[in-house]
Amino acid sequence: MTVARTVELEGHIIDSGTMGHCFGVVMDMGGEFEVEEFEVGRHKHAETYCRMTVMADTEEDLRAILHELNQQGATVADPRDATLEPAPEDGVVPIDFYSTTNHPTYVRVDGEWVEVADPEMDCALVVERGDPADPQGTGDAGEGDGEPRVSTKVLNAVEEGDLVVTGETGIRVEPPERPRDGGGSFGFMQGGVSSERPSESLIEEIADEMREVQAEDGNVLAVCGPAIVHAGGRDALADLVGAGYVDALSAGNGFAVHDLERDLYGTSLGVDTENLEHPREGHKHHIYTISEIVRLGGIEEAVEAGVVDEGVMYECVANDVPFVLAGSIRDDGPLPDTITDSIEAQNAIREQAHEADLVLMLSTLLHSVAVGNCLPSTTKTVCVDINPATVTQLLDRGSAQAIGMVTDIGTFIPMLRDELLE
Amino acid sequence: MTVARTVELEGHIIDSGTMGHCFGVVMDMGGEFEVEEFEVGRHKHAETYCRMTVMADTEEDLRAILHELNQQGATVADPRDATLEPAPEDGVVPIDFYSTTNHPTYVRVDGEWVEVADPEMDCALVVERGDPADPQGTGDAGEGDGEPRVSTKVLNAVEEGDLVVTGETGIRVEPPERPRDGGGSFGFMQGGVSSERPSESLIEEIADEMREVQAEDGNVLAVCGPAIVHAGGRDALADLVGAGYVDALSAGNGFAVHDLERDLYGTSLGVDTENLEHPREGHKHHIYTISEIVRLGGIEEAVEAGVVDEGVMYECVANDVPFVLAGSIRDDGPLPDTITDSIEAQNAIREQAHEADLVLMLSTLLHSVAVGNCLPSTTKTVCVDINPATVTQLLDRGSAQAIGMVTDIGTFIPMLRDELLE
Amino acid sequence: MTVARTVELEGHIIDSGTMGHCFGVVMDMGGEFEVEEFEVGRHKHAETYCRMTVMADTEEDLRAILHELNQQGATVADPRDATLEPAPEDGVVPIDFYSTTNHPTYVRVDGEWVEVADPEMDCALVVERGDPADPQGTGDAGEGDGEPRVSTKVLNAVEEGDLVVTGETGIRVEPPERPRDGGGSFGFMQGGVSSERPSESLIEEIADEMREVQAEDGNVLAVCGPAIVHAGGRDALADLVGAGYVDALSAGNGFAVHDLERDLYGTSLGVDTENLEHPREGHKHHIYTISEIVRLGGIEEAVEAGVVDEGVMYECVANDVPFVLAGSIRDDGPLPDTITDSIEAQNAIREQAHEADLVLMLSTLLHSVAVGNCLPSTTKTVCVDINPATVTQLLDRGSAQAIGMVTDIGTFIPMLRDELLE
Amino acid sequence: MTVARTVELEGHIIDSGTMGHCFGVVMDMGGEFEVEEFEVGRHKHAETYCRMTVMADTEEDLRAILHELNQQGATVADPRDATLEPAPEDGVVPIDFYSTTNHPTYVRVDGEWVEVADPEMDCALVVERGDPADPQGTGDAGEGDGEPRVSTKVLNAVEEGDLVVTGETGIRVEPPERPRDGGGSFGFMQGGVSSERPSESLIEEIADEMREVQAEDGNVLAVCGPAIVHAGGRDALADLVGAGYVDALSAGNGFAVHDLERDLYGTSLGVDTENLEHPREGHKHHIYTISEIVRLGGIEEAVEAGVVDEGVMYECVANDVPFVLAGSIRDDGPLPDTITDSIEAQNAIREQAHEADLVLMLSTLLHSVAVGNCLPSTTKTVCVDINPATVTQLLDRGSAQAIGMVTDIGTFIPMLRDELLE
Fold first, then answer.
1. Where is this region: Disordered (chains A, B, C, D) (predicted)?
2. How far apart are alpha carbons C298 and C113 in whole angstroms?
3. Closest-CA residue of chain C to B46
4. B415 vs A411, B32, B195, B210, B411, CA distance in Å?
5. Interface pTM (ipTM) of the complex?
6. Measured between alpha carbons, how far is D144 from D109 in angstroms, rounded to an integer?
7. pLDDT class for C67, splitting at 50, 70, 90?
8. Taking CB atoms and an 8 Å limit, are A277 and B193 in contact across chains?
9. Cβ of D93 and B284 within 8 Å?
C-alpha cells in the first residue's frame, strides 16, 4: 500500500448504510482502510462522524476507490477547490470530467461550497461566474467575477469553453439519509418491490401521499403508458386529472392516440378500441384518429372544436395540466403535439422532472426511464407495473424514497380514484 | 405411400379448426391425404362431413398419423370393436394402451358405442362388463356379461387383469366445437391470454358467469394460492364463500395456514402477517398457528372451539363448503387437515374436479395444474395470475372454454366481491 | 338479416385456418353465412374454393364483417375498381380510407389488379398513374395516364391530393398460406413461443436458415438491443458480422455506445462495462466514450482514426455493413450517428425492413417493434429474448413464418457463432 | 419510553450491514436507542463492538424489537440461561417458543453456550441432556445429566415432553459476515440477481467453484427441474454426473420420468419427447415409461435390466450418486422410487441439504424452495432459472453466499459441461 488519502463521512451514515458500503468498497477494490476517528451517533437524532485513511497499491487504484467513496458521500479531508477545465468542443468533455450522481452535490469554487442546481445523474458539472454587470448570467461563462453558479449539463448541452469540473477534488455529495421516521410506506434506497402492504392498503397509502402533496401545493407528475387505456384505467385517470390530483403528464404518442381514439370511436365501437391482444382490429380508427387531430391542428384545437370532449387528454386541456408527448420509433402518425426529436423531448421531460415532487410511473418503462434519468434522488417515486422486472429496474435507478407495486393498472387506477374521490 | 386408411370427421369442424388441423397433421407427419367426400356445413347450424383416405410410407408412420387424427376427432371409417388387453400387473399397462385426451370419448364394445365416464387426460381406458347378477359392477371386471362400462383410470389405479383399451380402433373422440354463439367472454381453445376486455369489464363477465352457475345450481370450485392472503384478497374471498358463490375449495397447506394465521394474529400484528416480501417476520406466528390447530385437532375443531371465527377457512366450515388441502414438500407443519400423500391428495382433487361446472384458478400454478389434470375439456375455466406465463400454461392444458386474466389477485378478488355482492 | 353480399375465398384456406376464421368472424359479429359453392382441395397441393353469401342486420354491420373477411383474404364476388379519394391535406386521410394489412395486396384500378409495392400494415394505399411522358412517376400523382402504381404510405407521408383507396371494394388480400412442407422450424402464424426443439437444436436450425439465406445472396437484418453487450454476446456477434452473416444492423444509441465503450475501456476496466445491475459504475466511461466519438465526428471516423478497432460497430464499418442507430428519449449523448428524429429514423428502418429476407430480433422490444411495423408478412423472423412476453408480443405482430426463442442472449449468440463458424 | 434493555453486537457488523439494520429496526418499530459503548473496527480485520440500550413504550414493544435484534445477531448484555418449556403434545409447541433463523445459533444451557446442530429456519430448538450412561443420547430427553445438546426440530417432529426453548433469553445468533475477500462471484446477502458478469464469465466462475468443492472432497447437491430435459440440458447433466461433479440429486417424479422417457423412446421418436409446448404429443410414452419402470420394480432395477442405459438417472445409479424423488400432486404415475408422502420426502431432502456444501438449484422453484428451507445460511447456493422472479425468490430465502443467474437451462448446462469437461 504505497499511496494513501484521508476521507471524512458525516451524518446518519450507519443506518443509511453509507459507512458499511464505504468499508466494503475499499475492501472489494483491493484497498485498505485505517479508521482514525469515529464518533458514533449515540441516539436516533445524533449523527456519526468518521475520518479514515484509505490506502491502495497505485495512484490509479486509489483514484478509483476515492471516486466510489465520493459517490457515497465521503469527502477528502483537506478540501481544495474543484479543478476546472474548459470543454474542448461543443458536446465534448475533458477526459477526466466528473460524472454526476443524482444526489445533492456541492462544488468548492473560490474557497466556497456552491450547491449544484438541479442535480441529475450522468451529467457534467459546469461552473459559471456571474458577471456583476450581468447578474442574470447571460454573459460569457467564466469571464465574470461575480457569484459562481454550478449546474448540471448533459453531454449534448455542453458548449465549447464551458468550465467543466474534473477529478474528484472539491466535490461533496450528500447521499440521502434514512428518514428518522422510517419514511412511511416509501422504502429507503430499496431496489426491490416494496410489497409491505397488500394491494388495497398500499393504494390507500399512495392516495394519502397524493393528498399530502396536493395539500402542500406540490407537483404530481404522472408518467403514463398506453396500457392504461388498454387495461381500462383511462376513465379513472381522467377523473383524477379533472379533480386536480395530477399537475403534469408525460407520455408518448401512443397513450394520447389511444385515449383520443376512445373518445372519437369509443362509444360506437366499444370493445375493439380497448383490445390489447388484437391490435389489428379497429386499427383503422387508430390511424383515422390521428388524421383527424392532424386536420384540426392538435389536441388543444380538437378540444376547442368540440371533437374531443372527454378522456385524459381532454381533462389536461380543460384543466390547464401541461403535458409532454415524446415521440418514438414505434409511433403511428404521430400527432402534431408529439415531439419527434429525442433531444428536444428529453429537454421537455427534464423540465417536468425538475418541477415534480411526486412522480407516478404508470405502466411504461420507456417514459419512466426517461423521466427517472432527470430526477434528483430526493424526489418521491411510485412505480406501478404488472411486470416485476420493470418495477425492479425503475426502483434500481435511484430514488431514495420509492414505492414499487406489481399490479394491474386496469384495477389500480380505478381503486386509486375511488380512494381519492369517494 | 404404401399404406392407407380411410377416416371420417363430422361436426362444426371448419370453424372449430379441426379440419384444418387434420390436414396439417397429415402433411407435417409426412403423409398424404385424398378427400373422398366433403359436404360443407352451408350455414351456421349445419355440420360438415369429410371422408378422406390418409396415406403414409410405413405402417408405423400411418399409426402415428392416425393417433394424432384420432385425438382431433377423426374416426376410422369402418368401425370395429376396440381391442382390449388385460393389465399384466397392478400399475402396469399393456404396451400399446390408448392414452386418453380430456374430450368426451366413446369406445366400441360388443358393437355398441359406450361413453367413457369422467373423461380425463393421460389415463388408460378400462372396460368392465357389469355382472347381470351384480348390476352395481362391484364384481370382478371382465367376468360379467351385462352392460359394458368404460372408465378412465390413472396408472396407479390400474389393477392386474383390468381390460385396457389398446390401439386406436373402436375409439371416437369428440373434441369441443366452437360455440355457435361465440361463447361469450370465454375464449374457444385459445392458448393465450384473453384480454378481450379491460380488467373491470372482464371482472363483470366473470361475475355474470358465477351468477349463472349459481342460478343453475351448478358447482364452482375455487383453487386458491397463498398469494390471495399476501396480496390482500382474503377477506373478499371469505365474503364470497359466505355468500354461497364458492361450492368447493382446493388449496394447499400454505393457503390455509396464512388464512388462519391472519385470524389468530391478524388483529394485533397487522402488517407482518400480510407481508410477502419479508416472510421471515412474523414467521413465529405462522408456525404457532399450525401448532394451535394441531393442538385443537383440525380446522373444524378450531372453528367449533371459537378460536377461528373469520376468514376463508372459517366460512368454508360455517357454510359446509368442502375443502381439500393437498400437501407439498414446501409445507410448514402441516395442518392436521392437510393430505400429505400425493396420490391420496390427487384422488381427493379428482373428485372435486369431476363435480365442478366452473373452476376459478386463483394465483396458484401447482394446485391449478393438479386440478386441471383431472378436468374434462368441457368444464369452464377462469385462470387469474399476475404472471402471464402461468396463465398461458394453464390455458394450454386444455379447457375448451377458458378466460385467462393477468391481474393482481389483491385487487381482482375485492372487485369481484363488489361486483357480486354490492 | 336484411343486407347481404357474396364473397369468395381460394387457396389452401382450410389448413391455413382462413376458412374457419371467416366462418367464426361472421358468427362472432352477429351475421349469418350461406355457402353457395364449396370445392375442397382434395389433396395436399389442391386448392379449395368457397363462395358464400354473408348476411347482416344493417349495412354498417355488414361493412364491418366484410372488412374483417377482407383482411382474411376474402374478396367480394363481383370485382369493381377500388374507390379513390384525394387526401384533403398533408398527413390527413379521407374518413373511409382503407388501412392496410402486411399481406400481399392487390388493388383493382382501371379494371386491372395492381400489386401493392412494399406491403406494410396500418398504411394508406395511394394510387399514382404514371405519366407516359414521365415513366419514373416523378410527376404529379393522378395526372398521368400511364400504368397505375399502388404504394403504401404512412400517415405522415400522405400529401394533399394523393389518391387514397377508400372502402373495401376492389381490394384483394392474400394472407400467407401454410407451407406445404410444414415450414421447417418456422412456425406458421403462431403467436406463441415455438419451442419445438430444445435450445441447442433450435440454434442449429437458425444457423441453417442463416446459411441458406447467405447461400442465396439474401439479406439478414440483425436488430440489436444493449443486453447483447451486457450479457456477453458482443464478441460473438462481432464475429458473425465479420464473417458476413449479417447484412444490415438496426439498433439504438445505447447498443452502439456499450459496444464502443467496451472497445475504448473494455481491456482496462473489464467487468464494470459489462455490468447490467450496477449501471452507475463505470458510467463515466459511457459518457466519455460518446464524448470521444463526438470529438472524432462519428463511428466511421473513429474507426478510421484507429480509436475503435474491434467490436460490432467496428466490424460493421470494416465490412461495409450498413447500420441505422435510432434515437430514443432514454439515450445518453447521443452519438453523432444516431438519428434523433423519430420519423426520420422510421424511414431509415423502413428501408432496412423492405430489403430484409430474414430478420433476427435480438433482445430489444422497442427496435424490434419498429422494424416489425414495416415488415411484410412474408419476411421470415427470428425473435430471441429472455422475457417470454416480449417474444409473444413480437410473434403476434405478424410474420407468417417465425421462430420465437426464450433464451439468454449471452449464451445464444456464442452458441450460434460456434455453430456457424466452427 | 418506559422499558429498556441493553444489548451487544460484535464482529464485522458495519460492512455486513448488521449495525445499520439494528439501528433501523429500533427506529422503525417505534423504539429509541442510546449507544453506550462503541469501538469501531479500525481496519479490515478488526471487529467492531457496540453496546447500546434499547427503549420502548411497552414491554410487548420491547420484546418485539429485541426479537428482531436477536435475529440480527444482537444479544442481551447480561446472559442468562435459555428458558425451556416442555412441548405439551406431539406436534405442538409452547406459545412463546423460539422460532429459528438459518444462521449459526448458540443456546445457553447450564451456564454454557451450546451450538445448535444443523441450523434450519422456522424450527423449534429442543434441548436434550445426554445421559452419562447413554452417551449416544438415545435415552429420554431431559432425563439425563450429561452434556446438553440442542437441535432444530420441525413442528411435526416435536414430541410431547421435548424441552423447547422459549423467549429470547440465552440465545445467540451469528448472522453471516461479509467475507473479507469479497466472496468472489458469490454475492453477500444479496436478494437480487447477481449479474456481475456476462453469462459466459459467470458460468466459468460456477465451474471454478464446482472444481474447488470437488478438490476439497465437498458435496454438490443438484436440484433439478423437468425443464432441464425439455430445454435440452439433459445429456450435459448426465455427463456431469458421470464425471463426478454431482454428489447428490434432488428432483421430482417429472424430472426422472422425462429423463427415462428420453432413454426409452428418445432415439426413435426424437422431437416429441423434448417438446415443452405440446405436452399432449408423445404423452403415451410418458405414461408407458412409468408403467415399464413400475413393471421392473424401480429405476435401479431398470438399469440393472439394461432397459435404461443412458441419461441422468442412469448415471446416478451407475455412479452411486444418491437421489431423492419427491412426489407432488402434479405427478403422473408415479415411479416406484418417488416418495409420495410430503413429510417423508421433506425428511429425505433435509438429509441431502445438511450434507451439501454447494447447492445448484436448476430450473425448479418447488424443489429449490424445499431444499432451501432446510439449508443453513452458510451453504453456498447457485440458482439458475429463466424466470427472474424465481431467482429473486430463491435468493431472498437466505443463503449468505449465493449466485443468481437468469438464463436458459438448455444452454447453461451444455456450456457448464464444456467448461468443466473440455
1. 129-149
2. 47
3. C34
4. 8, 53, 17, 14, 6
5. 0.91
6. 14
7. confident
8. yes
9. no
pLDDT for residue C283 is more than 90: no
| CB of C226 less than 8 A from some CB of D | no
Among the four given CATH numbers 3.30.70.2690, 2.40.50.320, 3.40.50.10420, 1.10.3720.10, the one describing domain A1-78: 3.30.70.2690
For chain C, give the percent of residues with pLDDT over 90.
Answer: 69
Residue B155 to residue D367, Cβ atoms within 8 A: no
* Chains interfacing with C (3 or more CB pairs < 8 Å): A, B, D
Interaxial angle between packed helices C388-396 and B388-396, expressed in degrees from 0 to 180 and rounded to the nearest 10: 70
What is the DSSP annotation of A72-94?
A: TT-EESS--PPEEEE-SBTTB--
Domain ranges within chain B, ordered by starting residue: 1-78, 79-177, 187-421
Q: Looking at the partner chain, which of A95, A286, A340 has a beta carbon nearest the beta carbon of C341?
A: A340
Write the single-letter amino acid at B33: F
**b/e B27-37 (16+ beta carbons within 10 angstroms → b):** bbbebbbebee
pLDDT confidence of residue C267: 41
Taking alpha carbons only, the member of C394, C165, C332, C369 closest to residue A254 is C369
B406 contacts on A by Cβ (under 8 Å):
386, 408
Residues written for chain B: 422
Query: What percentage of chain D carries pLDDT values higher than 90?
Result: 69
Best mutation target among B185, B190, B197, B405 (most A Cβ atoms within 10 Å) is B197
Calculate mean pLDDT across residues C51-57. Answer: 95
CATH topology of domain B187-421: Rossmann fold (3.40.50)
Helix %, strand %, coil % for chain C, to 5?
A: 35, 25, 40
* Residue B366 to residue D328, Cβ atoms within 8 A: yes
Interfacial A residues in 139-158 facing C (CB < 8 Å): 154-156
Q: Tell me if chain B has a CB within 8 Å of the CB of A192.
A: yes
The CA distance from B347 to B366, in Å, is 15
Predicted confidence at residue A275, as pLDDT, reads: 35
Residue B370 is predicted with a pLDDT of: 96
Q: Which of C244, C256, C240, C245 is nearest to C308 (CA)?
A: C256
Burial of C90 (0-12, 13-18, 19+ CB in 10 A): middle
pLDDT tier for residue C386 given thresholds of 50, 70 and 90: very high
Output C133 or B182, whichever has higher pLDDT: B182
Find, in chain D, the residue whose alpha carbon is nearest to that of B348. D329
Alpha-carbon distance A128 to A125, whole Å?
10
Query: Does residue C327 contact residue C252 with C-beta atoms inside 8 Å?
Result: yes
**C298 CB-near residues (< 8 Å, 6+ apart):** C335, C336, C337
Given pLDDT bands bounded at 50, 70 and 90, which one contains residue B91? very high
Task: Give phi and psi for D84, each to the nearest 5.
Answer: -120, 140
pLDDT for the residue A228: 94
Contact status, residue B262 vs residue B232, Cβ threshold 8 Å: no
Q: How do residues A187-212 score in pLDDT, each as one tens digit?
A: 776 655 644 478 998 899 999 999 99
What integer pLDDT is reported at residue A412 of this predicted model? 96
Q: What is the pLDDT of residues A216-242, one digit of tens each?
A: 999 999 999 999 998 999 999 999 999
Sign for the CA dihedral angle at C215, C220, C225, C226 comes to positive
Bigger pLDDT: D257 vs B395: D257
CATH of domain C79-177: 2.40.420.10
Cell 393430505 belongs to which residue?
B339
| Residue C138 confidence (pLDDT) above 60 | no
B414 interface with A at CB cutoff 8 Å: yes
Cα separation, D141 vs D165, in Å, equals 14
